[in-house]
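Residues determine shape. Take a concrete instance:
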Amino acid sequence: MIYTIIFFLVLLGLVRYSRFFQLIDLPNYTLPLAFILKFFIGFLFNIIHEYTYGFGDLSHDGSVFMFEASQLNAVFYKNPTAYFKFLVGIDDTAKSVMTYMPKTVYWSAGDLTLINDNKNVIRIHSIIQFFSFNQIYIHVSIFCVFSIYGVKNLVEAFKKNVSLPVKTLFWFLFIIPSTLFWTSSILKEPLLFLGFSLLIKGILNEDKTWKKITTIGIGTLLLIGFKPYILVCIIIALTAWAIYRFIFNYRFVFTFISSIALLVVFGSVFSNQRATVVNYLTRKQFDFVNVGKGGLHVQADTCFYYFQPFQYENLSIQKDVVLLKPCDAYVMRFGSTQRPKKVHLIPTGEHWKIHYYTKGCLSFIETTPINNSALQLIKNIPEALTNSILRPFPTDHGSYLIWLSIFETWAILYFMILSFIKRRSLSYKNKGLAFALGIFALSLFLLIGFTTPVLGAMVRYRFPAQLALILIGIIIIDTKKIKSWKTLFL
């Protein structure tokens, strides 16, 4: 405890006195105060996951990251060469994993199987554990520093494009509920947020060429390492912006029509690439549906088998799983994005390792299967946007935390409406910036809506899109038209 407090104070001093955390036009106490508040939110995040979901133990991704990071860290003391090979991904074969980290689940799952690849987060935590000694709040404090630096980057990127004072802009971005909550964790989100902020800052700021390249490069690498689909959405937004700016000279209608036509032509000409994208989305939706509905994933020699809850009567589920009666199952290959295939299994006495076993999620919602159909993907667009933008609804199932998400969702939509009502005259640059952020948000909302039928995960994954909406509102709103709090509601 004493060591954790000392470490926290050292980081507080870093935030206060390091030039990397200095913001002109802000009092010196602003970022240190924000760091303290963010650490407190990180503490609450852990409490929620320990006592609301974990029954006294850290639960969900956080517990897996910490455990598997400790497993990886322990490899260093057994075989330093093997550790560094794991760290850089040189010798990450199934044989090596079973030799040094047989108890891992996320690490041994393969790159694109049942659970998203979290190896880079585990790598980061394993490095931190050399001096944290597995004290979780040291990890929390470090990730909070990443997040605070991300807020600072966004302020520097947007302060010349908004009518808000810098101090107001900082605290406005800081207190966005979902951003504040998820980026105060030991999950991917603080690293995603840092990468996102660096990339946006590098694109927007007028710095020296080497600084822009360095900032953009680091931000890009972070997004590739922790949330590559966010980078894909940014690339889509930049492409749309280029069409909007250089081809149609800020004419939105022409840009929209041409973009739709471009997508149709791309889908027709590059049928193999279209099929790959549709197949990937189908697979991700399939995996999420299985997690949401509940089921059992077992690990055989070269594949996973998935059994639905009604099939458990055909199985002996102890430490291992043994098939007792013939039944159907889905088979999935390690690291493959191919559509899972239904197979009929016959009892052989083989023992399978339990990979993922759950009764399902309370916040699961029914969605229309894509089934590897590009046409069905298009038909699913209204459903995808409704789910990802507007849900959860008051009638949806979930914990009491669902109401916080409902409040935030409708508060953001209200702020967007208000910003359009009390909008200001925008320069062409700001029009293009708002347009690019809108395309980014739309792309991410669609991706989440297509693949994620679990509201708890949806709320977590969509925070960058909600952040983009808020940034659009901040860009277009005229603060001179809001003379008092009363005018916010009139």
Summary: The two ends are 50 Å apart (CA to CA).
